[in-house]
Amino acid sequence: MPCPVCETPTAKVHGYHGRTVTNVPVDAPQVVVRLCVRRLVCPVLECGRQTFREQIPGLLERHQRRTIRLAGQMSQVARELCGRADARLTGLLAVPVSCGTALRHLRCLPLPKAPVPRVTGVDDFALRRRHCYATIITDAETGRRLAV
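Structure (tokenized):
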């Protein structure tokens, strides 16, 4: 395994560390995976990281308690449902999460790439006469709303 800071490969084991993660359920019960990962020593003395834990590519990322596959599925459900409905559905799918966790998964998703408009339109309007006003910015060619 290479050191995450200096990228020097090492095989010197310092110890072992247990990790517990949740995986995609096969049937009704929740699937929990218990892993034993090695704690390795960096051979470079000047490196800022003396020891580090090995990462399992394709299965886990750093500090995750769910596998990459399960996190991807939860993000897709969060994209479709959001909040409380997402929490209810994932509870039925044997992966219970709170609505706060569902919203956190939604916030972690990358935003879709929006093309930069060539021509913009700006309009002011009143939500309540003489009390509350707003401005809308649109793409003049497609009529798509950009901001309010």
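Residues 68-81 form the longest helix (14 residues). Residues 11 and 134 are 62 Å apart (CA to CA).
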